[in-house]
Amino acid sequence: MNGFILLTLSAFVAEGNRTHLSRGTSRNSECVVGSNLLSLIEGDSVTLKSDVTKQGRDKMLWYFNDTLIALINGDPSKSCVYDGEGGIFRGILEVDFETGSLTITNIRPEHTGRFEANFIRSKSSGTSQSLNRNGKCDSTKVIKKMINIGDTVKTFSVTISESYNVEKKQEWEKNSVLSSGLVAGICVGAGVGVVLLVAAAVLGVIYYRYKSSKM
């Protein structure tokens, strides 16, 4: 198709065991072309960037596992973000209409998979055709990727890992300390009880001998 250049960015999200972030942090991680790995935990926010210069008539299509989740037309009023299959992206997608970047807030394990951005740059001097002709956004619609649009396809791969929840680890460590204290208390109590029993036995023997010597 003449008049278009297609750039594809693929971000592979996978569950893993590496992270330096904590749940509820205000940090926003950026996934940029050329990055190798971004480790996340549940509740983080991640921004996926194509790292391209978007012009007014350029378009960006974001896919998750070949399902369209964001369509950015030259006209923002004819753009749309989608909930995805099963509504897993409902209310957590944010789009930058100037750069075409996609932000996923409160990322969860079900977001493990492949994110792909198709960047369509119009080189024609005429008016570019909108990909959403009727201008109505049906966020519940599930649209599968059929074919690539454009002449040139370039792919960048980024891996994002979700790691062990730090809060759960801290809670587990806290409970472990409490459990250790409880066990120690039980052991101390048992030890004191044994000492008292031994002392009572010794006193009993002394008293018995004392009574015997008087008889």
UniProtKB/TrEMBL annotation:
Source species: Cyprinus carpio carpio
Protein's UniProt keywords contain Iron: no
PANTHER family with a match to the protein in the record: CD48 ANTIGEN-RELATED, LFA-3
Keyword terms: Membrane, Signal, Transmembrane, Transmembrane helix
Protein's UniProt keywords contain Signal: yes
Taxonomic placement: Eukaryota, Metazoa, Chordata, Craniata, Vertebrata
SUPFAM superfamilies cross-referenced by the UniProt entry: Immunoglobulin (SSF48726)
InterPro entries: Ig-like_dom_sf, Ig-like_fold
TM regions (residue ranges): 182-208
Entry protein name: Uncharacterized protein
Superkingdom field: Eukaryota
Signal peptide from the UniProt entry: 1-16
